[in-house]
Amino acid sequence: MKRIAGLSRRTSVSLRKTAVALALILGATVLPGPHGDFTSSAAAPMPRATLSAAPVLLLPGTVDSNSPLVWDLEDGQHKLFAMTSHSGIPRIANGSSIDRLGGTAQVSLLPHPGHAVWMEAVVSDEVETWYGFYHNEWPAEACGRLDRAVARIGAAKSFDRGRTWQNLGIVLQATPDTTACDSPNRYVIGGVGDLSVMLDADKKYLYLFYSQYQKQQDAQGVAVARLQWADRDRPAGRISIWRAGTWERNAGQREFIAVPGMMGRRIEWSYPAATPLVATSQPWHDADGRVDAFWGPAVHWNTAIEHYVMLLNRARDESYTQEGIYLSFAPRLDDPSLWSAPQKILNGGKWYPQVVGTSPRTGTDKLAGASARFFMSGRSDWLINFSR
Known about the structure:
Helices cover 1% and strands 48% of the residues.
């Protein structure tokens, strides 16, 4: 399995320790700062969340991406499966609960899309099949910068609880002309990735929340796309993106790509930028090195407050130094304008914050209740408590 040399944003584990804002209550007030308002039309008071210290809990293996968890029945026993990825290699572990997970084993993805893969979201059809969505980084060959990456999002399915995966192809990628070849960014100079996926309550749509890294400032930030659940086995070319207040269907452009050393050509789909949920006022890829942008969403449904909850990173420079961790709420998924203004819950912090529910047989990264575990980079030192 190939890896891209020099892409240490995902491989570095030497993040600085930061001050923790424990028990910070979230309200409906928009934080001051250079960002424009979050595109929210929700007038009702937002739920509240607090952090409280808890014994350390670690996901198995090493982690530098979102880590999906799934409950499933195997050999007559209910087991919790956790997928963790590091350096572009996904692995899987299982156990009887979040604090009793065993060792990891490397998974296979065939045909492999090339270079580095992080499996960041998994949804089960509750029968026999898991559907996974991965972040795939390719070196920026068109720019002559093999130590920098362009990201894209692919889909896969598994019939053996995540141990082997059948690749369903790339489902979201940016157009080639949006790569920022002259970017001072330390890691990623274009594309889309760092994602989370939610299936709506009616099982009609899969919603993809992802980060856009295109060179145009108005394209940068967290965006939303969706796929009909009925199209989950053939997702390529069937994505709709949220753009200018509406869902744009069939927005992708098909391209036939020659494959070196092979007969024929493969089909790839690229998409225009979706409208970011938060406008980026200090962009990626310009010359000053400063950034003010949200990225890396992680979304779950919270039963206690009956809202969807999104965790977000906020970067302050081209090296992805953390300004803080933020939360946003929405009552439903079909209208992205309902997401509330992001509220800070932690100063600094580490990449890839996630909420993980602890209820037996139900709690995962997609479903949690009043009290859940708060993870960053696969480590939890806190509980996160939700209320109205």
